[in-house]
Write a structure and sequence with these properties.
The structure holds 2 protein chains of 2 kinds. Chain A is built from 8 helices and 5 strands, in the order H-H-H-H-H-E-E-H-E-H-E-H-E. Chain A is of the alpha+beta class. The chains are: A alpha+beta, B mainly alpha. Chains A and B meet through helix 4 and helix 5 of A and helix 1 and helix 5 of B.
Chain lengths: ~290, ~130
């Protein structure tokens, strides 16, 4: 720009020096500089062609007026118009540049937004996939837990899943488990190992033979024996609740030996997977 | 377009003024035109972006009116033509100034956006860690 201006001045100085033209008019010199600078701007044709043409036409009028020896005010007038039109052209070019910047910046903005959105979508997709995998795993876990409970012959009751260890697994009047109970206890321990949040309510029950106090104590010891076996297999005792119910909750008639055998039992109530027992399964309510 | 019209009408006015020096006393078309262009510049926001150019246009218009009152039609026409081109310059600078302002805002916005976009990544990562 500066060089252009200098060149313009130099050219014009040469031109005026050689020509046998009349006096110099300062306004016309300035106008020539301005118009030359505008015409040298690479954006002039694109953004300010009309203004450049008008300025050149003004300049020609000014030069002609000077040549014809018309009043200096007329020369200055046309030079003024040329200068202003050149300045309007400059403003048009500035505006063109600014609008171009906006256009480019908006393109860039859209690109950044698109990138961010793509990234978000990618993240969301990954989260969905992870959630699906987790859900699938949970379904599988629940499925295998159900299968295992079925293997343990647990029955669904209004107290939750309940498994009954029958009288045959205990010695008569004793609280020691027979060796035949081992595989059941093993499976129970394995189940608890795989379902870390499940808790057990272990309830002992007896028939009506013998004193009530004795039966309650016997039922509690039998329940405790089951708990001890589980603890010896690595189950945390805090997950086990032991209670002796005595003879109060028969499941069969105590008048027959078959009924009494059914009543001598240990019931194991399973909590849900978050360690909660169903209502009616807790120690307070029988 | 307006510039060329201005030149033509200036030339015409010159001819008319020269032809009949005792022209009737009514606002010359260049004066009306300059007045209109000044109003356009005001509406375009020239007061904010090109106050000096707008002021010069008003001064020239006043000078044109003063010359016309004294019957100096040729001088009035010149002043009016200069006022017109001053007003056009004011309008051009106003819209260029507004475009520049918009560009600066977009640049600032783009900077903020790109800052946010790059800042977002670690944030979403940490939220995933929490999960």
């Amino acid at each position: 720009m500066k060089t252009n201006t200098l060149v313009a001045i130099a050219t014009f100085a040469l031109f005026t020096a050689c020509a046998s033209a009349p006096k110099r008019v300062a306004e016309l010199d300035d106008a020539h500089v301005k118009v030359t600078a505008l015409s040298n701007d690479p954006l002039a044709q694109q953004a300010a062609s009309r203004e450049l043409a008008a300025a050149r036409s003004n300049l020609e009028q000014a030069d002609a007026a000077l040549k014809k020896g018309e009043p200096q005010t007329d020369v200055a007038h046309f030079a003024y118009l040329a200068t202003r039109n050149a300045e309007i052209g400059e403003a048009r070019i500035d505006e063109f540049k600014a609008r171009d910047e906006v256009k480019k910046a908006e393109g860039e903005r859209n690109r950044v937004l698109l990138e961010a959105r793509t990234r978000e979508a990618e993240g969301a997709k990954q989260q969905v996939a992870a959630a699906e995998a987790t859900a699938e795993m949970k379904t599988e876990e629940a499925e295998s837990a159900r299968r295992e409970l079925a293997e343990l012959q647990a029955k669904k009751t209004d107290r939750g899943m309940v498994m009954t260890l029958g009288d045959v697994l205990f010695d008569t009047n004793a609280a020691t488990l027979k060796p035949g109970a081992a595989s059941t206890i093993d499976r129970l321990a394995k189940y608890l190992d795989e379902n870390a949040d499940t808790r057990l309510l272990i309830e002992g029950h007896t028939d009506s033979t013998g004193s009530e106090a004795y039966n309650e104590e016997l039922s509690r010891r039998r329940a405790q024996a089951v708990a001890d076996e589980l603890v010896s297999r690595g189950v945390a005792s805090t997950r086990l609740e032991v209670i002796g119910r005595g003879e109060g909750y028969p499941v069969a008639d105590n008048s027959s030996s078959g009924g009494r055998q059914q009543n001598r039992r240990v019931e194991i109530v399973f909590s849900n997977e978050s360690g909660k027992f169903q209502q009616g399964a807790s120690t307070e309510t029988p | 377009m307006s510039v060329r019209n201005g030149i033509i009408s200036t030339a015409l006015a010159g001819l008319i003024a020269a032809g009949c020096a005792s022209a009737p006393q009514q606002p010359a078309p260049q004066v009306t035109r300059a007045q209109t262009l000044i109003e356009q510049a005001e509406k375009a926001g020239a007061q904010e972006y090109a106050a000096a150019d707008l002021e010069r246009a008003r001064d020239k218009l006043q000078a044109a009116n003063a010359a016309a009152e004294k019957g100096k039609e040729e001088i009035a026409a010149q002043y009016a033509a200069q006022a017109a081109v001053d007003a056009e310059l004011a309008t051009a600078r106003a819209s260029s100034g507004q475009a520049r302002k918009a560009a600066d805002e977009v640049h600032a916005g783009a900077q903020t956006l790109s800052d946010e976009a790059t800042r977002k990544e670690p944030q979403s990562d940490s939220s995933m860690d929490r999960r």
